[in-house]
Amino acid sequence: MLNTYSTEDKVLLAVDCIIFGFDKEELKILLIKRDFEPEKGKWSLMGGFLKQNENLDQAADRILSTLTGINNVYMEQLHSYSKVDRDPAERTISVAYYALINIEDHNAELIEKYSAKWFSIKKAPDLIFDHNIMVKHAISRLRYKTSKEPLGFELLPPKFTMRQLQKLYEAILNQKLDKRNFINKINSLDILIKLDEKDMNSSRKGSFLYMFDEEKYKRKKAEGFSFKV
Amino acid sequence: MLNTYSTEDKVLLAVDCIIFGFDKEELKILLIKRDFEPEKGKWSLMGGFLKQNENLDQAADRILSTLTGINNVYMEQLHSYSKVDRDPAERTISVAYYALINIEDHNAELIEKYSAKWFSIKKAPDLIFDHNIMVKHAISRLRYKTSKEPLGFELLPPKFTMRQLQKLYEAILNQKLDKRNFINKINSLDILIKLDEKDMNSSRKGSFLYMFDEEKYKRKKAEGFSFKV
DNA sequence: TATCAAAAGTGTATTTTTAACACCTATATT
DNA sequence: AATATAGGTGTTAAAAATACACTTTTGATA
Questions:
Q1: How far apart are the two ends of chain B, measured CA to CA in Å?
Q2: How does the average pLDDT of chain A come out, rounded?
Q3: pLDDT tens digit string along A203-212?
Q4: In the CATH scheme, what is the code of domain B156-222?
Q5: Lowest mean pLDDT among A109-118, A215-224, B6-15
Q6: Does the pLDDT at position B1 exceed 50?
Q7: In whole numbers, what is the pLDDT of chain B averaged over residues?
Q8: How does pLDDT run across A37-51, given as a tens digit for each residue?
């Protein structure tokens, strides 16, 4: 291989993951207690370093998988953070990713093993380095993305109630929504399948379960339809 | 300094800039003829490498300044590109930035010196590596950003006509807009200053010049107003 | 100096979207 | 049998977006 750029500086490239989950009422992020210096013992995002033979998306997948056992979830690059002294140990540039997972799916044991813990985004502890600002940006991106694309479903179990969906959007947008207007809007999008099944946990009456109809959404999208909440 | 991460791989971090300009009718990007291998002689974005002692924003500024003499323009990080073999010479991750400049301000001489050239985004040549996709993403980001924030003015001279502004938005959005509706909407935002001066170049009648009232915009924004075109 | 050509400038009516709002239903629990 | 609790449902008003055509100005030209 040619090596035309040999005089240029090389740097460490970290990948940090903001992992979002939704737990009935609250939007949460998964944090880990850092077990190495610097800042050992402080709460941190899941992170690792890019390797020579992988791209950033792959590194993010690998890091998530290694630290939590979680695979095949929605993940998207957020932004790169490059303040010269952001990591006191060594010059490191960090590329942040955010992931959306169905909180019920995660293997609690694996997460325990690594001292990972879910925190409400409203009550999360102070994080190392520039991780606080990464989380802030991730929430803002999540807000934008979930209002333009049907990504919210990634945070819910496959079968969910209208109320759960509404609470999810309320948590993401950090505002109360009108029940009737919300349901009317979702129904007008016509991308859910209403099941005959009811969820009996939340009330005596029970509430109908729905599923996201991904195929229908794709078809409609191809025809120019655009999701908007 | 500690060096806790010494076993990790280091990589070259490139910064590539998509420089947007607007020339009466068309949205343009500034390209450069690459004068070193690999891909010498092909058209490329302006690029360079991150140095140890600067952050990415600073690197982007430095690169733009070095290659064009352009300083103090709106610039924003876009995305990082990391395909393993994206640069055949060596493993390189590129962080793309986009800049908005008033095309009249650029020093034509300096640009000539570096074989840089403006191309309409509709007629731009094929670019090296993954630069085509970067441009595509940048246009998409520009569309989003200029519809939510008053960034379009960065691409115009300080004094501009309504028609120029409309043509700018038409070029960015790649669609015709209705003259009356456009003016009504812009006027309703109430962030322009109408001057007594007319621009006599475009018609016999002449058309009034306007300026963006940045102070007023900031005041309104602080009060909860949000720009939306 | 009258006419023409070319872009500037201007307002209303219709449609669509968003927002506000309250009562009945079903059923497990007592 | 009564009650408590969350589920479910439609209409009206307000706001925003869209569609649409004629008059004005003035330099150039006949």
A1: 50
A2: 95
A3: 999 999 999 9
A4: 1.10.10.10
A5: A109-118
A6: no
A7: 95
A8: 899 999 999 999 999
Q: In angstroms, how far is CA A144 from the centroid of its own chain?
A: 13
- In the block, which residue shows the tokens 């001057």? B195
Give the residue from A18, A120, A6, A36 showing the smallest Cα distance to A79.
A18
Residue-by-residue DSSP string for A114-169: TTEEEEETTSPPP-STTHHHHHHHHHHHHHHHHHHSTTGGGGS-SSEEHHHHHHHH
User: How far, in Å, CA of B204 to CA of B184, rounded?
Assistant: 24
Determine contact, residues A116/A31, Cβ cutoff 8 Å. yes
| Mean pLDDT for the stretch of residues A6-27 | 96
Calculate the dihedral angle through the C-alpha atoms of A212, A70, A148, A58, rounding to the nearest 10 degrees: -130
Confidence of residue B3 (pLDDT cuts 50, 70, 90): low
**Helices B162-173, B131-148: crossing angle, 10 deg rounding:** 130
Helix (H) or strand (E) holding B212: strand B207-212
B11 and A13 within 8 Å at the Cβ level: the answer is yes
B36–A4 CB contact, under 8 Å: yes
Query: Which chain C positions have some atom within 7 A of a protein CB?
Result: 5-12, 18-22, 25-29
Which residues in chain B touch residue A4, judged by CB atoms under 8 angstroms apart? Answer: 36-38, 89-90
Question: So what's the pLDDT on residue A13?
Answer: 98
Burial environment of residue B175 by CB neighbours within 10 A (0 to 12, 13 to 18, 19 or more): exposed
Q: What are the sequence ranges of the domains in chain A?
A: 12-147, 156-222
The answer to whether B147 and B92 are in contact (CB under 8 A) is no
Task: Determine what percent of chain A falls in helix, strand and coil, rounding each to the nearest 5.
Answer: 35, 30, 40
Q: Going by DSSP bridges, is the β-strand pair A92-100/A10-23 parallel, antiparallel, or unpaired?
A: parallel
Check residue B171 and report its DSSP letter.
H
Interface residue of B2, B3, B13, B44 to substitute, partner A, most A CBs within 10 Å:
B13
Closest CA to B137 of B12, B20, B220, B38: B20
CA atoms within 13 A on the CB side of B154: 21
Indicate the class that CATH gives domain A12-147.
alpha beta
Q: For chain B, what percent of residues have pLDDT higher than 70? A: 98
> Residue B55: what pLDDT?
98
